[in-house]
Amino acid sequence: MTGPRFSFAVHVLREDGSAAGQVPIDVDWEPARECLRFLALRRGRPPAEAFALDCALDPVWHPKRGAPFLAGFRARAAEEGDSAASGSAGTGELRHDFRTDYFARASRTAAARLVAEGALREGEPFHSLPVAFPRGEEPAAAVPAPRLLTRPAVPDVPIRAGSLGARLGRSAAHGIAARIEDVPVFVPRDVLDGAAVLAHAAERKETGGILVGHLHRDADTAGVFVEVTAQIPARHAEADLVRLSFTPEVWTDVSAALALRGRGEIMLGWWHSHPVREWCKDCSEESRRQCSLAADFFSDHDRVLQRTVFPRAYSLGLVVNDVAAEAPTFSLFGWDGGVLRPRGFRVLEPDRPGPGGPGKTEEAAATAGAAGKATTGGGNHGG
Amino acid sequence: MRSADSQGIGLLEVSDVSGQKGMTVSGVPNDASVGELVEQLLAEMHLTREDASGRPLTYQARLEREGRHLHASERVGDVLQTGDRLVLQPNIDAGGRP
Are B38 and B88 spatial neighbours (Cβ–Cβ below 8 Å)? Predict the structure, then answer.
């Protein structure tokens, strides 16, 4: 489906069903590929194999309208003989079906273009239908530009053995109810508290940092879960009331902090604050209660940052909602079927010393120590 | 990228800021600029090229061996050696009310 096999467009309809136009789109397939790669990891493939997986993408035609209208598409592990021009549907058992909401952003862009061209009025309701067309062979460029010789490197994504049951036993669900297919995510309470303190201290500016931790495979079920162990404040970020810039200095600083910690953690995601109490300070109390900015709000800029820096399907984006007259609240976003959505997580309480002394296991002791170290240092934040 | 120099850089390791996506690169001509190299690497690594407003995202290449960010106008043959490791670091904004 990628490469020369298909080209894509969005067919835009007005509310009365009349056609406003059809706009070609460039589709970002990387989130779909990452979704399939993480599925491979969850099904037991080692990280080096799972994250190097080559994917093939096939159209799923709309059951009533038929081709060229899409009901979605299917990503599957590429098989021998697959080529961009083969058109093979394949029957690989590792596959995932994506819905048309994968094209939502491209649809909005297409509608904006039709508004600019006068084919659709500003604010006019519309429906969009993604379509795909087989693409003919394209002539080769007359003088091909010299290209780099590149090869994907084995990604540095370690996965540790760990006990899901032990963590479930000392954690509580937070936010949106988890679905059976969701990968469990644990965030220590100390990490949340530390981020909340930084968010409140930043007052009229956004602030943020990087979430670090581990991927684990449960010893009993072989299921994969994610555990945040610390947040590293983005000390060199530039910030104002509605913006937080992660500069190259931020990434260098965080990499150095990770190396100094020496716990084998990886960057699992990021967090940032929304100073809602400042955004909404002139609003009525009623407006504040109903404000869509107060919870589960991820801006277009936030989405681009997540896609740019944290495209892996297990990556996380945490928002600290610094709301007026209440304690800060937390919204977690993650990839779901190649699309960013709010999701639930579990708040992990500190591991309490058992009768035999501090720390039940070596792993648990290391994890608790990491969380404590990250939040007691506090105070350094962007802006 | 300009015409290949047969004495180009043998092999580079390149990664994103998370260290979770990377590639090895060979055949980088000595007379290419760092900016040209970065442009090609962004495409090869499927890294985002535009921000939410459609403006180009800027990336800096950090050369681990020297612990510094390379300037886009520097010449590959002057600053890189076979075996070097580069990290592509975006300057990217979050936030923004709708």
Answer: yes
Q: Are A164 and A186 in contact (CB under 8 A)?
A: no
Q: Which residues of chain A have pLDDT under 70?
A: 1-4, 79-92, 137-147, 325, 353-383
Token pair 């994907």 is at which residue? A152
Nearest C-alpha in A relative to B25: A150
Q: How far is A153 from chain B (nearest CA, A)?
A: 4
Q: Is the peptide bond before A144 cis (omega within 30 degrees of 0)?
A: no
What was the ipTM of the complex prediction? Answer: 0.90
Q: Which of 296-355 (A) contact B at CB < 8 A? A: 297, 299-305, 307-312
pLDDT digit string, tens, across residues A265-282: 999 999 999 988 888 777
Q: Report the run of H or E that residue B94 belongs to, with start and end.
A: strand B85-94
Distance CA A244, CA A157 (A): 27
Please name which of A349, A371, A329, A334 lies closest in space to residue A175, comparing C-alpha atoms. A329
Of the candidates A163, A306, A310, the one whose C-alpha atom is nearest the C-alpha of residue A227 is A163
Q: Which of B8, B11, B6 is nearest to B84 (CA)?
A: B11
Query: Length of chain B in residues, anyone?
Result: 98
Cβ of A113 under 8 Å from any chain B Cβ?
Answer: no
**Helix (H) / strand (E) containing A307:** helix A300-309
Sequence-ordered list of residues with C-beta below 8 angstroms from that of B11, at least 6 positions apart, any chain? B24, B25, B26, B82, B83
Q: Which two tokens stand for residue A366?
A: 């290391």
Q: Do A244 and B94 touch (CB under 8 A)?
A: yes
What's B28's DSSP letter?
Answer: B
Q: Is A144 on the interface with B (CB under 8 A)?
A: no
Vertex A226, ends A206 and A368: CA angle to 5°? 80
With beta carbons less than 8 A apart as the criterion, state whether A189 and B55 touch.
no
- The DSSP 8-state label assigned to residue B9 in this structure reads B
In tens, the pLDDT along A243-264 reads: 999 999 999 999 999 999 999 9
Q: Shortest CA distance to A231 belongs to which of A274, A204, A199?
A: A199
CA A197, A198, A199: angle at the middle one, nearest 5?
90
Dihedral sign (CA A68, A72, A74, A75): positive
CA distance A198 to A378: 7
| A217 CB within 8 Å of a chain B CB | no
Cα(B50)–Cα(A319) distance, integer angstroms: 23
Smallest Cα–Cα separation from A22: which of A116, A130, A115, A96?
A130
